[in-house]
Amino acid sequence: MSAEAETEQDPGRGPGGRPDRPTAPLTGAEGAGAAGPVAGLLLAAGGGRRLGGRPKALLPYRGRPLVENAVRVLREAGCDPVHVVLGASADEVRERADLSGCVVVDNPDWAEGMGSSLRVGLASLAGTGAGAALVSLVDQPGIGVRAVARVREAYRSPTSLVAASYDGERGHPVLFGADRWPDIAATATGDRGARVHLKEHAAEVMLVECGDVAAPFDIDTPPDLARLA
């Protein structure tokens, strides 16, 4: 894995069918707004239950809250605007983390699972003119700018459905064209996130291999905290 291989559970993780379209990343020009900009949507509402109730957004990483790293990655990869969904300890996150320039939205139902955060985040993007939402998770610092940029550059239209893959297995981040948002929101419940939509449309998913530049680990348990050192 690359050293840049720079981390709530996956809205769409799991084995996915191989894409029937090319998986090679497009150039920046091709992916930079074919039908509206690609917005970054960061899901950062998790309460860190298995971490003793430590909100994941506030875990220390390189001297700053973890959420700041995730925002930086989205921005440097070319996502604009960047929307951040908070939940657990939202007021404390706002106070301690620098989220300037982001649209920050609260998910009062964050404890119901990541599906609720995905719904809130997609709703916040309605009317922004974004052609797609690139969804990333706050607890995956091993996924850096190069991986996110590859997925963003694969955007082609509001019907795009793109996911990073690691040795052929679908992972994060995931890009959802705006035409897909209503169906995704209708099926995003509990911790399933967008998995229902991704399963039903597996043949349409463009996989973008990122295993050479990223490590898709999660920060879920106390032993995982060593990865933040």
* Largest sheet strand order: 5-4-1-6-8-7-9
Radius of gyration: 16 Å
Fraction in helix: 10-25%
Structural class: alpha/beta
Question: How far from one another are the termini?
Answer: 17 Å
* Overall average residue pLDDT: 87
Total DSSP E strands = 9
- Count of alpha and pi helical runs: 7
SS strand fraction: 15-25%
| Succession of helices and strands | HEEEHEHEHEHEEHHE
Low-confidence stretches: 1-33
| Sheet having the most strands | 7 strands, mixed
Give the CA-based shape. globular
Features:
disordered N terminus; alpha/beta; two-stranded antiparallel sheet; seven-stranded mixed β-sheet; 229 residues
List the SSEs and their pairings.
Layout: H1 28-31, E1 38-44, E2 60-61, E3 64-65, H2 66-76, E4 82-86, H3 90-96, E5 103-106, H4 114-125, E6 132-137, H5 145-153, E7 161-166, E8 169-177, H6 181-187, H7 195-200, E9 206-209
Parallel strand pairs: 1-4, 1-6, 4-5, 7-9
Antiparallel strand pairs: 2-3, 6-8, 7-8
Helix pairs in contact: 4-6
Structure description:
- The protein is about 25% helix and about 20% strand.
- It is an alpha/beta fold and about 230 residues long.
- The strands form 2 sheets. It has a 7-stranded mixed β-sheet, with helices on both faces. It has a two-stranded antiparallel sheet with strand order 2-3.
- A hairpin with a 2-residue loop joins β2 (about 60) and β3.
- The radius of gyration is 16 Å and the shape is globular.
- The two termini are about 15 Å apart.
Short account of what is shown:
With 229 residues, this protein is an alpha/beta fold. The protein is built from seven helices and nine strands.
